[in-house]
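Task: sequence design from structure.
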């Protein structure tokens, strides 16, 4: 029973820590070894990338047609779309679900290329943002720690 409690508490701490770190990196738009994390806000890239998916982008210098990239538009909003045309100085992108292409953007506005997406983490993230669930997890963690037998070595 003791091993079960240790395993459960360790898994709980690990999962909550990972989700907390992902939220911090996503909210603050921090770069970690050239990688950044974003949460998708619209369905413009469906079905490839869905609303609320978490995506990891890699900062690069060169991009090619069909790369899915995140860039800053003229209003400083982050946009994640697929490159459909490239010229010497500009890139034209388009959301897979959109009917029209985006306005041309300067290549230096591109933040990075999408290299990975998390769909399942979004579900866990939504659950953990519910204060009732978060409170229950916190209470369970405290109870496991309080009632875990203290064995002296």
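Answer:
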């Amino acid at each position: 029973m003791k091993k079960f409690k240790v395993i459960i508490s360790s898994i709980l701490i690990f999962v909550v820590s990972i989700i907390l770190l992902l939220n911090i990196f996503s909210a603050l738009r921090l770069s970690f070894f050239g990688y950044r994390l974003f949460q998708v806000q619209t369905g413009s890239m469906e079905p490839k990338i869905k609303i609320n998916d978490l995506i990891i982008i890699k900062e690069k210098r060169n991009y090619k047609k069909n790369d899915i990239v995140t860039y800053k538009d003229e209003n400083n909003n982050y946009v994640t779309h697929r490159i459909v045309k490239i010229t010497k100085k500009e890139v034209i992108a388009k959301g897979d679900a959109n009917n029209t292409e985006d306005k041309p953007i300067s290549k230096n506005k591109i933040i990075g290329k999408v290299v990975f997406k998390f769909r399942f983490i979004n579900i866990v993230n939504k659950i953990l943002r519910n204060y009732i669930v978060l409170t229950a997890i916190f209470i369970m963690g405290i109870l496991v720690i309080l009632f875990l037998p203290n064995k002296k070595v």
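Residues 26 and 119 are 15 Å apart (CA to CA).
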